[in-house]
Amino acid sequence: MNALVALCHFCELHGPRTLFCTEAVHPPSPSPPQPGPVIPGDRDREVDREGEGLTMRANSSATQRADMCEGCRSLPASHPGFVSVDSETGIRYLSHQHPRQQQLFSVVRQACVRSLSCEVCPGREGPIFFGDEQHGFVFSHTFFIKDSLARGFQRWYSIVVVAMDRIYLINSWPFLLRHLRLTIQSLQNTALKVFDSEQCVCPQRAVRMNSAFSPAVFPHQRSGNAARSLTSLTQHPNLWASLHSSFSWLLKACGSRLTEKLLEGAPTEDTLVLIERQTEQEEEMSGWDGAEGGGSNPQPSQSESVQAKDFQFDDGRQEDLLGPKFKSLRHLRQVLGASDFRQLAWHVLMGNQVIWRGADPGLIQSAFNVLKALLPVGCVRAVPYSPHYEEAYRCNFLGLSPDVPIPAHVSSSEFSMLVDVLNVERGCVNPVSDDDILSLYQFNISSANTQPTDKGPTLLNKIDVALSNENLSVEVVSLCLLCLKEEWMNKVKVLFKFSKVDGRGKEDTQKVLALLGATGPGEEDNVRLLKFWMTGLSKLYKSHLMTAVRATDMEA
């Protein structure tokens, strides 16, 4: 992450000061040697530049060093600072009291002054965002540290994250807020213990009330109490090394959580839904952290737990699963057989609840991982493995342990399908590989649905043709499926705009279905599929259509 993290302090004698700063130094990109004569001294200057990050000067002038009290200083000028190297990327994370470059020093200095003076949130404690294109953008979190000798028994600090990329910093707000609060709470809790122990030995409130006050003595009293360092307030012997580790991890993690991806054209509905889910999850976690800071510890509801599992399920990687697993839709079709697979895929596309029950959670989750490729991301609600039954409105993919009973109203419903995974009893024979699933398991498929699945929907017919064509590789089939889903999602958007937003009648809707190619053989299944896939549209797309319609009505 091209950013810089700094800890700032408002000194009662010298005003806002930077205490500790961590920056990321990227390795120089190799450049081809330029032909020409070698100038004496160039090699020496290169060596100086390479060692500049390891020597890290605190202040360049003796005047600045002299104008610092104990509370303004973190590391002495002779201290080499702290260096951490990321072995994967070669990025070095350097920490000292001030940045190495003069330009960064000015930027951080201005961010420090603004965070502890004019740019303050209500209550003086909490996060705030400010900045401009010239001096960079700043995420600042101000907070108090207890001090028994300070005015008001507390001192004012802030942690600032400075970056030139405004969008990136705003998108990282929930992440930065959550992890900076952990660091701040750790500092406050440690300082509070020291404060309580000092108050027990010598209560300062009583001392101040009993001492005589005079204008002549007051400046000397203030100057004697104003120079306490953060190390003294927390009694933490390795405070700066610990902050270096925290800030370095923050820069690395924040830089790796968001990556740029080249998109051809507008983002797909799946991309929009994934962004919305990630944003919602980060906001929920930030809300829980804030509530915990306020003294309460809310427990997520059952539906929130299911949504969290669903998000983890979407992020699960197939190669992380141990034991036998399904590798692709074609592999699943080969194991189940063409007829049973078509029946299973039909239930998935129609939005019915698909239940897998067995003793191998890895195998069941691998089946869900390949089956979810049939649906838009917004239509996938999964509980990979549960010790009890979950209702269909909570999830359309449900994995159960073998001893979990299926309720009668579910087993008799035509809107559900059960796949029982039974272990095959084998005698003393040669061990089989994990790929040979049929030698390890037997699959019993049952459903109360009596509707034939051989006519439609049209999307299922095209998928069946692609999977049965052995000349197409698994990668080609995946791309073919992606194109088919985009084609039908565009039909869903047209139908949603026509029927839900514009409110057209049944006759007009039938004409649109014919125009979309959803009529004819399997028409009932096509319409049912389109209506189910409407639930997978992103909130952004729906709100955009609604806003456009309201604006048109107001103009009319």
From TrEMBL:
<keyword id="KW-0539">Nucleus</keyword>
<dbReference type="GO" id="GO:0005813">
    <property type="term" value="C:centrosome"/>
</dbReference>
<dbReference type="InterPro" id="IPR044886">
    <property type="entry name" value="FLCN_DENN_C_sf"/>
</dbReference>
<keyword id="KW-0963">Cytoplasm</keyword>
<dbReference type="GO" id="GO:0005819">
    <property type="term" value="C:spindle"/>
</dbReference>
<dbReference type="GO" id="GO:0005634">
    <property type="term" value="C:nucleus"/>
</dbReference>
<keyword id="KW-0966">Cell projection</keyword>
<dbReference type="Pfam" id="PF16692">
    <property type="entry name" value="Folliculin_C"/>
</dbReference>
<feature type="domain" description="UDENN FLCN/SMCR8-type">
    <location>
        <begin position="73"/>
        <end position="538"/>
    </location>
</feature>
<dbReference type="GO" id="GO:0005096">
    <property type="term" value="F:GTPase activator activity"/>
</dbReference>
<feature type="region of interest" description="Disordered">
    <location>
        <begin position="283"/>
        <end position="309"/>
    </location>
</feature>
<dbReference type="GO" id="GO:0030511">
    <property type="term" value="P:positive regulation of transforming growth factor beta receptor signaling pathway"/>
</dbReference>
<dbReference type="GO" id="GO:0005929">
    <property type="term" value="C:cilium"/>
</dbReference>
<feature type="compositionally biased region" description="Pro residues">
    <location>
        <begin position="27"/>
        <end position="38"/>
    </location>
</feature>
<dbReference type="InterPro" id="IPR037521">
    <property type="entry name" value="FLCN/SMCR8_DENN"/>
</dbReference>
<dbReference type="InterPro" id="IPR021713">
    <property type="entry name" value="Folliculin"/>
</dbReference>
<dbReference type="GO" id="GO:0005829">
    <property type="term" value="C:cytosol"/>
</dbReference>
<dbReference type="InterPro" id="IPR037520">
    <property type="entry name" value="Folliculin/SMCR8_longin"/>
</dbReference>
<keyword id="KW-0458">Lysosome</keyword>
<protein>
    <recommendedName>
        <fullName>Folliculin</fullName>
    </recommendedName>
</protein>
<keyword id="KW-0343">GTPase activation</keyword>
<keyword id="KW-0472">Membrane</keyword>
<dbReference type="GO" id="GO:0005765">
    <property type="term" value="C:lysosomal membrane"/>
</dbReference>
<keyword id="KW-0206">Cytoskeleton</keyword>
<dbReference type="GO" id="GO:0000122">
    <property type="term" value="P:negative regulation of transcription by RNA polymerase II"/>
</dbReference>
<dbReference type="Pfam" id="PF11704">
    <property type="entry name" value="Folliculin"/>
</dbReference>
<comment type="similarity">
    <text>Belongs to the folliculin family.</text>
</comment>
<feature type="region of interest" description="Disordered">
    <location>
        <begin position="25"/>
        <end position="48"/>
    </location>
</feature>
<dbReference type="InterPro" id="IPR032035">
    <property type="entry name" value="Folliculin_DENN"/>
</dbReference>
<dbReference type="GO" id="GO:1904263">
    <property type="term" value="P:positive regulation of TORC1 signaling"/>
</dbReference>
<feature type="compositionally biased region" description="Polar residues">
    <location>
        <begin position="297"/>
        <end position="306"/>
    </location>
</feature>
